[in-house]
Specification:
It is a single chain. By secondary structure, the protein is α+β, with helices and mostly antiparallel strands. The protein has three helices and eight strands; from the N terminus they run ααββββββββα. The strands form two sheets. The chain has a six-stranded antiparallel β-sheet, with helices on both faces. The protein has a two-stranded antiparallel sheet with strand order 6-7.
Length: about 170
């Protein structure tokens, strides 16, 4: 967040410098207020660009084994432009490269979910999906063991809709 603040200030100073140059070229015919107005617009435009490009910058930097399955779009009154096009401020993704299956439990898969939010470090959560039973078990803060036959013991299962994109991405077999 500090780097974004610095970048916004640099954008403001750059546009203020351009406005000062235009005032000099016009020999003072442009009004003085154009310099701080250009600085403010530069900072605002950078902030808007940064908000809208965050999701694509993050997802383009991810390895191809990570599939985005959910994204949250936000609208707020202090960002009136977000009513025209919502801002994506957090998302979840499945790391299919981390998928683990037990040979005796072919309908179950253990994967890492990547939870990412703007201005926060991404978090990895290990989840087991029962592809046949359409349910999932979050393994964070649970006393879970895996039996020799691959059965998950002690997990709290929750039902998942059959058309859930996270379930589909986790259960997809290559």
């Amino acid at each position: 967040m500090l780097f974004e603040l610095i970048a916004a200030v640099v954008a403001g100073v750059a546009l203020a410098g351009i406005a000062m140059g235009l005032r000099w070229i016009s020999r003072g015919h442009l009004p003085k207020w154009i310099v701080p107005a250009a600085a403010g617009l530069g900072m605002l435009f950078y902030a808007v660009w940064s908000e809208y490009s965050w999701f694509s910058r993050i997802t383009n930097a991810m390895p191809p084994t990570i599939a985005v399955t959910w994204q949250h779009e936000d609208r707020s009154f202090w960002r009136p432009w977000s009513y025209y096009r919502p801002v994506i401020d957090r998302f979840s993704a499945v790391d299919t490269g981390s998928a683990k299956r037990h040979p005796e439990q072919p309908g179950q898969v253990m994967v890492d979910l990547v939870l990412a939010a703007r201005w926060q470090p991404p978090v990895r959560v290990t989840v087991v999906f029962d592809c046949n039973g359409k349910r999932q078990a979050n393994l964070v803060d649970q006393d879970v063991t895996v039996a020799e036959d691959g059965a998950i013991i002690g997990a709290k299962w929750s039902d998942v809709p059959a058309d859930d994109p996270t379930l589909a991405a986790a259960c997809k077999q290559d």
